[in-house]
UniProtKB/TrEMBL annotation:
Name of the protein: ChaN family lipoprotein
Domain Haem-binding uptake Tiki superfamily ChaN: residue ranges: 50-255
Highest classification ranks of the organism: Bacteria, Pseudomonadati, Bacteroidota, Cytophagia, Cytophagales
A Pfam family this chain is assigned to: Cofac_haem_bdg
Keyword Repeat: no
Amino acid sequence: MHFTPHVSHVIRPLALWLLVVFLASFTTADKPAYRLFTAIGKPADYEKALKELAQADVVFFGEQHNDPIGHWLELQLTKDLARLKQGQFVLGLEMLERDVQPLVDQYSTGELDDKAFEEQSRPWPNYATDYKPLLQLAKQQKFRVVGTNVPRRYASQVAKGSLTALNTLPAEEKAWMVPLPLAVDYELPGYKNMAKMFGGDAAHAAGVQNIIQAQALKDATMAHFLVQARAEGQLLLHLNGSYHSDNHDGIVAYLRQTNPKLKVLTVSTVSQEQLDKLDKENQQKADFVLVVPTDMTKTY
């Protein structure tokens, strides 16, 4: 006797198979912690960005100081660029100030242990999680780490009393900053934006100018010392707050004045509600824009 299968016997396995496929695709759906874009908003993958960054003379990685994804990617980029450049790599850090450079060098050679270094070098509160791994990597792989920032006490003096507050400093202390006098270009987009943020009207003009001068002192000092730290043929990766290098401004502007022939590339870190595309206001901030979800865990 010929047996014809009931329709339900065919449909049920098919439905079950479709359900399994649907659930599998649902459970493996991409839930990215970050996305990388070019300046104009085209998706970019890490390997593509790495190859391009490795061809630069100076790379600025603009971070959000409390963003764990940015710090993790900085560590990966440092590892990869150090590997690709094979001894022609230098790491510069905003987070280390010029007067502690002897301590940085002693730590790198093993003369100072972790405890002594951290007691004397005025590390940032998030040093242990976010920057210590970079210094440990440098010690292991024997590449140089350079602190580029002006000691914060001098920036604070300028913010309160303008650049003239530095005039009476002894020569040995002036050696920790860009050569003075410093010409500040208040028309730089970043500084104009600062004026708006701090209410740059006539009533606040002097105070706002002092704040901008303090920012300029940091930017110019970092540019000055990263140029000194980099030898011909080397790649210097500089880590700093994104505002110091966004829109190829800040440190980059002073670097151009010092050595306009350098090939400079930038990365900026931004937060967005969605990661599918780069928001218009974040386009052109850097050569590569790292987008992190707004609800990403913060380190502090």
